[in-house]
Specification:
The chain is mainly alpha-helical and 96 residues long. 85% of the residues lie in helices and 0% in strands. The protein is built from four helices and no strands. The protein is elongated, with a radius of gyration of 20 Å.
């Protein structure tokens, strides 16, 4: 029974890691990364390392995807404002 759970957990890790690499949209990548963090936490728990599993659950499935989502949001906002702002005009006109 334990070996079957271990194999299923490994297959889920492989599938979610492949999905995280295959997805092109950064927002969806961070969500798939959160799923990967949960699956890794389950794998660590199956391997009798619940302390590592809890750390993975906190950091890998909550904090890291949240920081990535906030970063993508900030970058997209800057990209929308740049052409209208003073730095965008200065760059196009070539002035100081």
């Amino acid at each position: 029974m334990t070996e079957a759970v271990f194999v299923v957990a490994l297959l889920l890790v492989a599938a979610s890691a492949t999905a995280a690499v295959a997805v092109r949209d950064p927002v969806r990548q961070s969500l798939v990364l959160a799923v990967l963090g949960v699956v890794l936490a389950v794998l660590f728990t199956v391997l009798h390392a619940p302390d590592v599993g809890l750390s993975q659950l906190a950091v890998g499935s909550a904090l890291t995807p949240l920081l990535l989502l906030l970063t993508v949001r900030k970058v997209r906002r800057r990209g929308q404002r740049a052409p209208d702002g003073p730095a965008g005009r200065r760059g196009r006109e070539g002035g100081p």
